[in-house]
Amino acid sequence: METSLTPKRPLAAPIQVEGPKEVDSGYASKSSTPENSKFGPFKTKLMHFEKEIPKLTQNRSEDLRELYADSLNNLVSGISKSRGILMTLKVLGESEETAEPWVFIQCDKAIAKKVRRFFKQSSVVSDFKPPSPDIYTPKLDVYVHELPPLLLGRNSPLSPTSTDSINLSPNLFESVELFYEQDPRAQYSLCGSKAIVSVNGQWRSATIGGLISVETAEGYIQDFGLTAGHFLNGDCYTESFDEEVQETDEEETDDDADDEFFDDGQDFELDLGSMEELAPTTSVHKTSTQLGAPSNPKSSIGHVFWTSHKNLQDQPNLDWALFTIGNNTLKLPNIVLADEITQTNTDDVEETRAVILSTASRGRTYGMLSSSWSYLALAPGNGLVRTKAVKFARNQVLEPGDSGAWVVDSISNQLYGHVVASDVFGVSYIVPASDVFRDIQLRLSLKAV
Question: Phi/psi zone of residue 344: left (φ > 0), alpha (ψ -120 to 50 degrees), beta?
């Protein structure tokens, strides 16, 4: 679901990707960049800094995203190897004193150069880099990073003795049995428990967010478990950033030889040297096979009922999955902190909030929910979905298997949403629960969720 902010200037109709009308926007062709050494062209290192982004800058970014929403959606459609795209604001620079807000985009190599060419168009350049920037229309440079957002589902090869693997297809969801491993520290709730399925020769796991009740059009009440959906989608679920997956030569053209960065003719590259400090035990890019297979599940909880990518019909993918609960004794209260969650946040968060979540990998984890919106497009959906960023204390990042975890306010106990992905800095992104519930209601023709 998209937000609608009042623009600071009249908005034109969405502009489609143009070919010939290009200007020198600050990108430099790799083939024409002079080399300052035998090792290749010099590139200025950009570091990421945790600095507050002015509200007016956030508003301007929202205006531009709304202005070019259709064009940005078109960039990610029709490319089979795309596993998602993230669009957010980051403070980048050579030093903390000179760092400024940038539009930061993470996406597959398959579409990265198309994205760069889009931001080279004269009309786009004039909006993102106005000739006379001010507090209402600041300069926003664009950085495109050639890695898709990391989906936080987990898959591992089945053990040789496993015999319960099935082939997963959209028409077989109802036959997919779902197992669970309950967190021994949270015996009175399923929130934070591990959800596991055995499909296509792999264990796949996510985190159970919690339980929801729905009312059908006929007035019947039914309870379901809720988690993320991408760990069940074989078409888009690839958590590794292997070069093999990134190979897309057949989809590239000579025009794709544009440089990556958008800043006055200079070359930049992201300095990720501090990533090990962020996650000394688990790299944000480590695959689940490196983490080891889950223990053999013995407890069945039910079956997969529906996912957000089933019968999507060219709509945005909000990345959710519902599963049935076969044993009434497992219909436990939703508890992440201390009390049962009874309210869902439906208001726009105007300031950062302290939050807590319970994940399958590490149990309770504390973080800060951003006040600004970020946007994700996840295969096989068509369109950007609004998300909120969650930043964690130093040395903490979420791991594969944590997708689906509910994020709640540490004071009000309100539910904000569930985790779906992380970026290259270890920041995670959640889809708002209010948007997910509304999507479930519309997609399944329910009276209430």
Answer: beta
